[in-house]
Amino acid sequence: MSLFRNFATGLRSLFRKNQVDRELDEELGAYLEMEAAEKMRQGVSRKDALREVRLERGSLEVTKELVRSGGWEFFVETCWQDLRFGLRMLRKNPGFAAVAVLTLALGIGVNTAIFSALNATILRPLPYKNPEQLVMVWGVEPRGCCRHGGMVFSSPNFLDFKDQNRVFENMGAFDGTGFTLTSVENPQKIHAGRVTTDFFRVLGAQPMLGRTFLSDENQAGHDHVVVLGYEMWQRRFASDSKIVGQTIRLDANQYEVVGVMPHDFDFSIPGYYGPMDLWVPIVLTRDNSERRHNYLNVIARLKAGVTVRQAHAETNIIVARLIREYSSTTEQSNAPPTTTAETNEHSGVMLGTKLEPLRDEIFGDVRSPLLILFGAVGFVLLIACANVANLQLARASARQKEIALRTALGASRGRVARQLITESVLLALVGGALSLLLAFWLIKLLTGLLPAGMPQGTSITIDANVLLYSLILSLATGLLFGLAPIFQAFSRSPSESLKEGGKATATGGGGLRLRGFLTVSEIALSMVLLIGAGLLTRTFVGLLNVKPGFETENILSAKVTLPKYSYADSRQQADFYTRLLEAIATLPGVKAAGAVNDLPLGAGRDSDEFTIKPRGAKDVSSSTGSCQDRLISPDYFRVMNIPLIKGRTFTKADASSAPPVVIISQSFARRFFPNEDPLGRHITFADPAAAPWPTIVGVVGDVRDLALDADPDIEIYAPYQQNVLPYNPLPYMSLVVRTVGDPSSLTSGVLAEIHELDKNLPLPETEPMTAVYSASISARRFNTLLLSIFAGIATILAAIGIYGVISYLVTRRTHEIGVRLALGAEARNILALIVGRGLLLAIFGVVIGLAGALAVTRVLAKMLFGVTTTDPTTFVGVSALLIGIVLVACYVPARRAMRVDPMIALRYE
Amino acid sequence: MPDKPSDLVQGTLDMLILKTLALEPMHGYGISVRIEQMSRGVFRLNAGSLFLAIQRLERDGLIDGEWKPSENNRRARYYTLTAKGRKRLDSETREWGRQVAAIGRILEAS
What we know:
The structure holds two protein chains of two kinds. Chain A contains 26 helices and 22 strands. By secondary structure, chain A is α+β, with helices and mostly antiparallel strands. Chain A has five domains: 2-71, no CATH class; 94-128 and 363-504, no CATH class; 152-349, no CATH class; 509-547 and 773-909, no CATH class; 563-760, no CATH class. In chain A, strands 1, 2, 3, 4, 5, 6, 7, 8, 9, 10 and 11 form an eleven-stranded mixed β-sheet that branches. The longest helix of chain A is centred in the middle third of the chain and has 51 residues, at 358-408. Chain A is elongated and about 135 Å long. In chain A, 42% of the residues are buried. Residues 144-148, 329-347 and 502-508 of chain A have low confidence and may be disordered. By secondary structure, chain B is α+β, with helices and mostly antiparallel strands. Chain B has a single domain, classed as Winged helix-like DNA-binding domain superfamily/Winged helix DNA-binding domain (Arc Repressor Mutant, subunit A, Orthogonal Bundle). Chain B contains four helices and three strands, in the order αβααββα. Chain B has a three-stranded antiparallel β-sheet with strand order 1-3-2. In chain B, a hairpin with a 5-residue loop joins strand 2 and strand 3. In chain B, helix 1 packs across helix 2 (28-38) and helix 1 (13-23) packs across helix 4. The radius of gyration of chain B is 15 Å and the shape is globular. Chain B starts with 12 loop residues before the first helix and ends with a helix. The model of chain B has no long low-confidence stretch (mean pLDDT 84). The A-B interface holds A 1-2, 5-6, 9-10, 23-24, 26-31, 33-35, 37-38, 56-58, 60, 62-63, 66-67, 70-71 and B 27-30, 33, 44-48, 51-52, 55-56, 58-61, 70-72, 74-77, 84.
């Protein structure tokens, strides 16, 4: 009640100030009159009585001021006064205001932009129930390989895990496939997630319409049901609310729509699992012959209270059990197992497991780069702060007299500090508001540059969180750089300042020391950023110089997908590709045409287990492993310019009826056939008991197939006409077409040939091989570019900062320089004097920056390739660059100093 | 001449004003005269501290102010004790009594 009353009265004095003032006047007037009347009754004259009252009771004006300042509204009012005064000051110094506001807008803007990227990714809660319980389960494989996180599961392995574990509440498995939606006018290629019936329950995701899968829908015959994604439902089915129960045709098969997922359900994992249009149940089998066919990604929900570590211990026990149980069943030769590792390789099961929280799986790739960029923009903001503080210090010396006067008139230090802080915060808020424009533009730029590794469906926007962050950051910034002028204002006594008549002259060393400190910090911070940017740039340039092992210029790629309903078996598929390649090869401007299932450096990859046949009955060296396998057309090596090292390449004669053949990569040959000739040896992906074993007929050069910065994986090539893999890999192939000129110019020709062969085929996406290549390094390009931009901004700000300090120094010492010149100093002595000062600051800054960089660049270690975190070239080069920039920044004011006319300078006082 | 007026014990001014108003509604000058009389000239109030205290008490809802014509036909602001103010006065008086007695006992111990 009284709080409300206090508030209401306060508001009244704020908004009806005049009336409240009049009332106070009247009340105090009455008081004065009554007391005076009392005194007059005792015979004192009215004039004396009034004087006496004032003496005894205090001045009425002071009383009024005291009463007024008693309420909370007084604080608000003085803030408002300070604010208006601050605005007036800014309007009187438009140059200062503009530079300060722009600097702050730049500093806050880059922070807001990077924060909004954080906000859209690693700070965003995953849209699942208790997402912290979700983990991805991977297998560990003896020779580090395979997909994104490790080795995937086969159907029997997954089912064994699901049955035997006691740590997971539930487990789900998923993979992706392509369908052609045929119940609509233009057949359309769509991405479908194949998931276990439990998948949605594991995630705790509820459908928006209908239901998810029932547990018996993983049985063949019951599995023709589909759950639609929101976007698919909206785009292809016009948000039909009665869609549940209707049938759609996928690859010419009927599927019943049982549910639609809500808008925010977007299960995708960057790198290997893109967003899906719809989901169908996957049919699992316990058939032991499938134990080697690993294709399932596994997600699990931990039981409440179970830690990742406990779960990991349990999954490792299960692996050990599976190894014991199955290593002998797939082991065909009677050679005694020599080591455990070797035994395990024979098992077709993984060696161990790896659990990765889903959050890390999704955001792991972007977390550390984003945090590093966040740190970098923090540095930029600190430098901006230091610059504005410097500007304010220069201005504060001019305002020394004003502040001294205020203090002399009775303003307390706190009151003066409050006024100065209000002005700083005002600057920061104006800068912050302007920064939103910059952030908006930067976010647009960021979105355009987003690397492929960015989680799908990420949209970076300025939302309430970002606005709040920006506001708080602005306030904090204002408080931070607002400290400098306060520090300066109180460093001298008011009487001193008043005596000087407001001219900041040779004294006031405290301010200069502070400015020197700020400048050194700026240089040190820019130094750290520049070194970081330098290391990333050297990495990037190094990557561009890595030879991928194939040529990227003048190659057009096109990923063709053949729908299962019209190309049922691999022979039909191979036929189509053969005819298509022949047709394309005859196009004008085409030198050669080939095909491969997974492009090197592309997103898709497959690895399978192989067994090498011992040379004879006595040979016990038989070994197995897993490697990348690529199905190619005979001309593939010629198109990609991959050199043949030994043996022969494939020809048309290696048809499906011919004896199966394979070609291995050089590192494969080196690892498995050291000191012997691999040609003529046999190797298989299938069950070793089955005949025939494909023969090695050639060795080709290594290709950086996974990434430019990863060593080439061992690799086996097989002709696509011969199906040597345990499953049908041919529903899609990437055409590679070597062209005479610009590859894009052949796009329409290639598409026309595809249409010519099959009008109903969904048209493939085409892109030049150079685009595939540059997409593979897009994340690095993104990080390098951004860090370089931020380091550039930081350096420019630091240069402006040092320029300001040296200019100030020259202005302040004009008189002294005049005297020196008059006494016979030469211009170059003056130059040395001024530049020497700048150089001193620069060297301090560079040394501190070097130490800082040595401590900090470790965080970049994972992002570097080919350079160490303490790369001497970068450290030396950046130091020299920064000192050079500082010298240029000093030279301009130093020249002014050299041209000082002694006569004018001496009269200047 | 009485002794020089003393300063009030910290925090007692509010209690004295409430006590004064418990007798009858009064304006600012009346309050200061009454306190001076009752203390036989020991306490003389400064206008600043008086009106600051009045403002505080009014905002806390312990007293109510109202404009009324004064004896010399001007308008003056008269203050009345509210129910809440009376309660506060009672509790503060009791507390004061306790403290004075305690201090007295300490000072008288020999």
